Amino acid sequence: MSEHWRQPDKDATESHGQYISAIYRHMQILISAELTPYRIGSGQYIFLMAIAFQQPITQKALSEKLLIDKTTTAKAVNKLEAEGYVRREADPADNRYQLLYLTETGREVVPKVQEALGRVKNKTRKGITDEEYDLLVDLLKIVLRNLSEQEEMKR
Fold first, then answer.
1. 6 pLDDT more than 50
2. Is the CB of residue 45 less than 8 Å from the CB of residue 31?
């Protein structure tokens, strides 16, 4: 082996992005397994929970709140509506918009979804103090804000 070769710096071979991506994939698998009994996919629960905490809400406002494109939001809301968890009503202030509400079935399933998400969250927090977890979330918010600002500057 050449004497000029050296081990790359940790910074050159490791990226927070690879860990975020792997964490996301593993969490989606766990969340999907937890939510299977309710016919809610790992891609729909965040919409269900956002509607639960801020109803009525328009699809547009839901997309903006979750930082998710309108097409993905529409598909998720359609699935939740098909499962009987969400209903739409015309906005009395502007008939062009639909307001989203939970149905009775939706209200009944939300605590069960919260419990399931809590079980997954507890698995992710094992060995991490509350302060460390809060710092992790705060740092991830900063990374997201940095990336969102870069995207906005390009528009």
1. yes
2. yes
Q: pTM value?
A: 0.76
| Residue 92, pLDDT score | 87
Rounded to 5 degrees, φ, ψ at 40 are -115, 125
Map out the domains of the chain as residue ranges. Answer: 14-154
Q: Where are the alpha helices (DSSP H) in the chain?
A: 10-13, 16-35, 45-53, 59-66, 70-82, 104-125, 130-154
- Tokens 């490791």 belong to 14
**Which numeric CATH code is attached to 14-154?**
1.10.10.10
Instruction: Retrieve residue 75's tokens.
Output: 């598909």
Q: What strand order describes the sheet that includes 57-58?
A: 57-58, 94-102, 86-91
CA distance 61 to 63: 5
pLDDT score of 89:
92
